[in-house]
């Protein structure tokens, strides 16, 4: 009998996107093929403890009582890091072996998980893992550095300014360079947390203060009139990189955290209603952006289609939302790769890529 592959599904974390990570993990745990994989759910609490959170996916992903969190009362565990005993997951209380991992599926959104920190730990542990490596994870998490690299690669990005930690807002300079409206956001955040649209200059300082609740480094961008569309990029085990059909989130008003995850008023349009020549151009740009940022495994590339011009890259997300209703799996489903097969592909690619310099 063929031994099942042991997959550590790591979720939760100390970032403000903890709850969204739990929702993504619940979907992945429910959809992993139990005939092929032994899934081991490892939650990271908001305090940073690693625990064995064995709640069923339907409980972990339940939003009826509010957004879920990792069960802080679950048994604490620790992952062996090093070339000896690599991949061993043991209980902290008595050292009992829980599992020996073959591969890790990180489902951590935001800082301290999606930003290269966990990826570096897994490199030390000599454990293959799903998704981008240390550099791409870190560079894509910091939207200011991402835009520098994309622009250096000849890719279209919109006007922006970065505010370093503690830097005062130079309103006069922003008036000259960016104009109104503006979007102010944490430089290293996600899930629309801390994002504020500014339509009056007197509201700018407060918007910066809101963003700094999530990150001392802030990004200020020109508001681009037009549509927002997204493209899912996937690396296959043989090294091919392909882009999906496009998707669009249609909402009646501002697309914020509540609209995304609580109000259930957003509508997904997949494929997006975009002409084929333009869609083909965007897919090609998405693959170029993926390669420019040295991504691997997967990324979602978000675009603006400006009213008076072509596509502009907004950002790359190296661990996008992974619920069954999230755009990334939906776009691949409409491209011909269902959720379960998508998970298979990501895990197989992780094994094919391996760890270390490559």
TrEMBL record:
Pathway note: Cell wall biogenesis; peptidoglycan biosynthesis
SUPFAM superfamilies for this protein: Glutathione synthetase ATP-binding domain-like, PreATP-grasp domain
Cofactor comment text: Binds 2 magnesium or manganese ions per subunit.
GO function terms (MF aspect): ATP binding; D-alanine-D-alanine ligase activity; metal ion binding
Pfam families (alphabetical): Dala_Dala_lig_C, Dala_Dala_lig_N
UniProt binding sites for Mg(2+) 2: 315, 317
Catalytic activity: 2 D-alanine + ATP = D-alanyl-D-alanine + ADP + phosphate + H(+)
Gene Ontology CC terms: cytosol
Residues at the active site: 17, 191, 326
Subcellular location: Cytoplasm
UniProt EC number: 6.3.2.4
Positions contributing to Mg(2+) 1 binding: 302, 315
Domain of life, per lineage: Bacteria
Chain ranges of the ATP-grasp domain: 147-348
GO terms (BP aspect): cell wall organization; peptidoglycan biosynthetic process; regulation of cell shape
Enzyme class: ligase
Listed transmembrane segments: none
Keyword annotations of the record: ATP-binding, Cell shape, Cell wall biogenesis/degradation, Cytoplasm, Ligase, Magnesium, Manganese, Metal-binding, Nucleotide-binding, Peptidoglycan synthesis
Binding site residues for ATP: 143, 183-185, 191-192, 221-228, 314-315
NCBIfam families listed in its UniProt record: D_ala_D_alaTIGR, PRK01966.1-4
Function description: Cell wall formation.
Matches recorded under PANTHER family: D-ALANINE--D-ALANINE LIGASE, D-ALANINE--D-ALANINE LIGASE A
The protein, known as: D-alanine--D-alanine ligase
Natural source organism: Segniliparus rugosus (strain ATCC BAA-974 / DSM 45345 / CCUG 50838 / CIP 108380 / JCM 13579 / CDC 945)
């Amino acid at each position: 009998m063929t031994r099942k592959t042991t997959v550590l599904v790591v979720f939760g974390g100390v970032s403000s996107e903890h709850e969204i990570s739990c929702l993504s993990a619940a979907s992945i745990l429910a959809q992993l093929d139990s005939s092929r994989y032994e899934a081991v759910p490892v939650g990271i609490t908001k305090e940073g403890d690693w625990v064995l959170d064995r709640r069923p996916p339907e409980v972990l992903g339940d939003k009826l009582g509010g957004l879920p969190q990792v069960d802080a009362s679950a048994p604490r565990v620790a992952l062996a890091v090093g070339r000896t005993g690599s991949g061993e997951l043991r209980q902290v209380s008595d050292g009992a072996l829980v599992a020996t991992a073959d591969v890790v599926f990180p489902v951590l959104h935001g800082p301290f998980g999606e930003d290269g920190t966990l990826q570096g730990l897994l490199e030390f542990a000599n454990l293959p893992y799903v998704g981008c490596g240390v550099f791409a994870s870190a560079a894509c998490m910091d939207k200011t550095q991402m835009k520098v690299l994309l622009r250096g690669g000849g890719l279209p990005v919109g006007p922006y300014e970065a505010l370093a930690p503690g830097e005062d807002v130079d309103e006069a300079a922003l008036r000259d360079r960016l104009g109104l409206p503006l979007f102010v956001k944490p430089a290293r955040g996600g899930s629309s947390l801390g994002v504020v649209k500014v339509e009056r200059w007197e509201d700018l300082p407060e918007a910066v203060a809101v963003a700094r609740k999530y990150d001392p480094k802030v990004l200020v961008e020109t508001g681009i009139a037009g549509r927002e569309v997204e493209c899912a990029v996937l690396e296959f085990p043989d090294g091919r990189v392909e882009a999906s059909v496009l998707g669009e989130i249609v909402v009646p008003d501002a697309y914020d955290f509540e609209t995304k995850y609580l109000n259930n008023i957003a509508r997904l349009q997949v494929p997006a209603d975009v002409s084929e020549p333009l869609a083909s151009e965007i897919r090609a740009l998405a693959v170029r952006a993926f390669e420019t940022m040295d991504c691997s495994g997967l990324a979602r590339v978000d675009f603006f289609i400006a009213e008076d011009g072509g596509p502009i890259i907004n950002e790359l997300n190296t661990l996008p939302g992974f619920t069954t209703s999230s755009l990334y799996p939906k776009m691949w489903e409409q491209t011909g790769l269902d959720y379960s097969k998508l998970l298979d592909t990501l895990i197989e690619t992780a094994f094919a890529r391996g760890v270390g310099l490559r």
